[in-house]
Amino acid sequence: MAKKQTFVDKMTKVESHSEKIKCPACKQDTSVTYAKFVDSKISEKSGAWKFLERKVRLCGNCGAIVS
Ligand SMILES: [Zn+2]
Fold it and tell me: Who is most buried in 18, 25, 33, 41, counting CB within 10 A?
């Protein structure tokens, strides 16, 4: 069966949380922003789409990725 799927390069969903951190990049006390990245890849073995989800935390002030 031929299954057509829309190519999705990167979807970013940003959620704001009230979690406070001290950002190592801008040295500010700020709230954390969560960004969800979904990477789509074609599996080399099966040729099927794979979706890899990962969550990163971003500084709400300067946007740097904090861990
Ligand atoms: Zn920052």
Answer: 33
Count each helix (H run) and each strand (E run) in the chain, helices first. 0, 4
Centre of ligand 1 from the C-alpha of residue 43, in Å? 36
Look at the block and give the residue holding tokens 């904090």: 66
Greater confidence, 44 or 37?
44
Q: What pLDDT does residue 18 have?
A: 72
CA of 18 to the centre of ligand 1 (A): 15
For residue 43, count CB atoms less than 10 angstroms from its CB and return exposed for 0-12, middle for 13-18, buried for 19 or more.
exposed
